[in-house]
Amino acid sequence: MNKVGFWITSLLIALALASSMLFVVDQRQFGVVYALGQIKEVITEPGLNVKMPPPFQNVRYIDKRLLTLDSTDTESMLTAEKQRVVIDWYVRWRISDPSAYIRNVGPDEASGAIQLNRVVRNSFQEEVNRRTVRELLSGKRELLMADVKREVLEAVRGAKPWGIDVVDVRITRVDYVEAITESVYRRMEAERQRVANELRSTGSAEAEKIRADADKQRDVIVAKAYRDAQKVKGEGDAEASRVYADAFGRDPSFAQFYRSLDAYKASFGKKGDVMVVDPSSSEFFKNFTAPASTARSGR
Length: 299
Description:
The protein is an alpha+beta fold. Helices cover 55% and strands 20% of the residues.
């Protein structure tokens, strides 16, 4: 019985010892083997591996996946205009060199997140200090994120590399501090009003120019039409005078009689006109008196 118990105990100890010597590295992890507190080996490929039993060797796992670090504080930053803004951001990063990471950053992902948050925060502060609010809210925001990423990469790849790779830096929100939001809105409204007034003024000036051009063209057209009309009228008057002269030259007495009729028409055109003359002695009314020979022959 004692022998059976001994063998059972020995078997259990052997199984426990074998279990402590075997470890599996997942495809989402790095396996780091420590020997007496020092890094002995880094396992980068997934699979079953063997090590010495504790306390001679131990293993720790570090995530190799793409990690996301979100901004955690709401402390405001000063812009180039001395305006306070709050920026929310996130960083996508991963551990690329576990040995350097453990040596210079820490034994787990939380250590890297804490230090990376500090570096990104300081970089954002420096870049925001050099930019205006308009630049933070416009398409130039892309330049800000690119500059922050460049500065963060320079920091983590310095004299003591962190063993991480920063994949992306993104801004999710830019907001004013509540105390100055109202004044900023008023300033933005005034700016929009100024632009609207400039557009209206430009439109009014353009409309006035169009009206002036139209008036000028109208005056030119009217003057040309009047000139052409006067020319036609002059030609008509000249032709009429020629016809009259030709007709009157053939019969001077009829011409004199015709002109007398025009004179009568002009003199007696109004009913209220009164003329006191002696028809018998007036040359003007000679056409109303018959010659003596004509009167006698009529009798």
